[in-house]
Amino acid sequence: MTAKKSSRFALHLVAAALVAANAQAAQLTRDNGAPVGDNQNSQTAGPTGPVLLQDVQLIQKLQRFSRERVPERVVHARGTGAHGEFVVTGDISPFTKARVFTPGTTTPVFVRFSTVVHGNHSPETLRDPRGFATKFYTSEGNWDLVGNNLPVFFIRDAIKFPDMVHSLKPSPDSNLQEPERFFDFFSHIPEATHMLTRLYSDLGIPKSYRHMNGSSVHAYKFVNAAGEISYVKFQWKSLQGEKNLTLDEAAKIQGQDFNHATHDLIEAIKRKDYPQWDLYVQILKPAELGKFDFNPLDPTKVWPGVAEVKVGRLTLNRNPANVFQETEQSAFAPGNLVPGIEPSEDRLLQGRIFSYNDTQMYRVGANAFQLPINAPKVAVNSNNQDGALNSGARTGAVNYEPSRLEPKPQNPANRSSNLPLAGTTQQAGIQKTLNFRQAGEFYRGLSKADRANLIRNLAADLGRVANAETRDIMLSHFYKADADYGQAITAAVKGDLATVKRRAAALTE
Question: For residue 8, is pLDDT > 70?
Fold first, then answer.
């Protein structure tokens, strides 16, 4: 037998052993013991349709995930907030009927900045995405724009969100955050390559909350007065400039003040050096979605080449008087929308529409909207009632609808837009994944010094991974994104470049 045939035979035996081992392993089940058929993809209405509420595995995972911590937020626990205002300076009325974007309108806001993975009182110098959540108290009710400082995310389906966070959180047996665990997870998630590349650049540790940009990450829908739909992404651009910390700078600051970002924001507002951001939107017509060689509703992608239109300016000018009553009790959810702004068919966003509201209902309570920080500035006229800590002043005999005794009419102009559907329900990944290209484009756009920092930052964690297969798969993802990137990180962690190249060659976009 030749060496080549012997190698193939050995690989065949290994594959057969893995199949046999998997066959003997206990099947994944739901809490009622029923086996799970697909834990990778949410059920959708056809290849491009929205996620279905009937997906009991998705719903159960999100519900259980939201209830894992009491009372600290499961994610975004470490945060600070401030009050301010948003002033519209541009005109996008051809695209949306949302009154918050009426030219010249000033809307009060509350913004909460946060880290994502680590708990309350954790250092603000840790490498982590930063949350950038804005509550607009509009004349049509509250609109929450819940995003991050980075414009993309790790995953594209909400059914993987609990798994992702579990891998990033401290290990259940040691209470230590372990690169071995989260790279084990991400080695199965090639679409994370783009987000990991951005996160391990110096963007992963912003100098302060004032010096970072923000993004909706997801695409939403604009609906205008004629009922016409556009897809939109939101971007906050810091007027203070985007500034970040190197590993050495972060370590020095952490040794002196692990609350540095909170201190910076509070002190800037105290001295009336009010931080500001301009809001920009990117807009696509539905017919334009197909012109890309990737899915524009994929949250692991940015929209290169799509014009950015300036909409208005955000100014933060008042610190909270009571951090618990305002910052900690503030409840943000992407499901808090107003007429003219709707969710897109982005699968991750579709899951967040449910899970964030459910999380806040669990964490703060069914009557969270009655708390001053969450209460809309317009009258609420619903039939929702009672529940714990209800401070409302509901009166009258009619708590149902429809009713002649006390009618609550609905305006057909505020109906949701119509989405054409085709195909059957399914559980399958999206088409046009393009998992690696934008990561490579981001890498090539960095300066030589920023590339060196990215390799150093990434190697500091990836180099701690003991499992050779996990490490090699991650290295192949980075090599697939860009050969120079892959070679540099492989050398930094003393990996085998030939193995990395072979694995990368077998990958498809």
Answer: no
